[in-house]
Amino acid sequence: xxxxxxxxxxxxxxxxxxxxxxxxxxxxxxxxxxxxxxxxxxxxxxxxxxxxxxxxxxxxxxxxxxxxxxxxxxxxxxxxxxxxxxxxxxxxxxxxxxxxxxxxxxxxxxxxxxxxxxxxxxxxxxxxxxxxxxxxxxxxxxxxxxxxxxxxxxxxxxxxxxxxxxxxxxxxxxxxxxxxxxxxxxxxxxxxxxxxxxxxxxxxxxxxxxxxxxxxxxxxxxxxxxxxxxxxxxxxxxxxxxxxxxx
Length: 247
Description:
Blueprint: E1 16-21, H1 37-52, E2 56-61, H2 77-101, E3 106-110, E4 119-120, H3 123-131, E5 135-139, H4 149-159, E6 165-169, E7 174-175, E8 187-188, E9 190-192, H5 193-199, H6 206-215, E10 219-223, H7 229-234, E11 241-244
């Protein structure tokens, strides 16, 4: 496992990674709702490029472009979360279709059983798919309410023995405050897990950060909106923020 963002050899320092995508990545440009064929195709072509480099890719998708359970007023939280899990399945199927249209064999595994559309989540089967050169998309979160897709990403990454989590966001890393509201916000090149927790920085939720900290799993936060950044991040170019143990 390599934690240096400064690689320049042209070869990716990682062999197996987990990419965390929010639901926003699937929405039309400048719109927060729905699934855009264009946005999904752009994601698929970037992932195809990385896949062609020999990197084994697993993906955890969010569902906020369709349904945000935590924002559902007056609804039972568990029911709202289950609806959110179903939204992630829709995004996963859209990404699977886009990937296969550009020639990347893909499997969707879901934490909620729905045999007609996806495999059940089985870690060893997921790893076997990756070894055979297939991309694997994990949907339906953890399959239980009150857990975010950030936590799902950390848990799935650990189970499939991924070497790092790459979290694509709308900004180019982690800042000490919201750069959209504060023009003087400072971006971190690297952070230790404990600093993220102490400062309450919005990298991933505290459960996800704690899981990564306990298991020494690095997180790279980068700007997903700039085309080509997935490849740049996986090549170790310094385009985002590395969250790590500091050892």
